[in-house]
Amino acid sequence: MVAEAEWERIQGELRFGQVLTGTVVRVPKPGVIGVFVDIGLGVEGFVDVVLLPRGRSEDWPVEGTVTDFEVWWVHSDHPQVRLKPADPQYLCEDFADFVARYRPTWPSEIGKALKGPKPSAP
């Protein structure tokens, strides 16, 4: 785990929608939880199950998969960067509907700093 000052620095350098290449390191319960991703920043990356193909965990990226992810939000309780798959093959089929329903401000947040007013979490 990184120190608070390091976490603050990392957050200050990230932007919503920023694309990071990462390696899937854990898929603890396919179809249930999500995937953990090493994004090379010293903090954990995580893709929530709601952003992955629903009902088709065999279409999720497996451990060792190297692909691009976008910064979706940051976990407020501990250092963790929440990600969304950049590759549509790993993204839920109804992403546009999901955004419209649960995070309609997403398009306007892209490119903004993580620090500052926190976006609504899904």
TrEMBL record:
Domain S1 motif: 17-86
Organism: Streptomyces atratus
Record-given protein name: S1 RNA binding domain-containing protein
Organism lineage: Bacteria, Bacillati, Actinomycetota, Actinomycetes, Kitasatosporales
InterPro entries the UniProt entry points to: NA-bd_OB-fold (IPR012340), S1_domain (IPR003029)
Gene3D superfamilies assigned to the protein according to its UniProt record, in alphabetical order: Nucleic acid-binding proteins
Coiled-coil segments: none
Recorded GO MF terms: nucleic acid binding
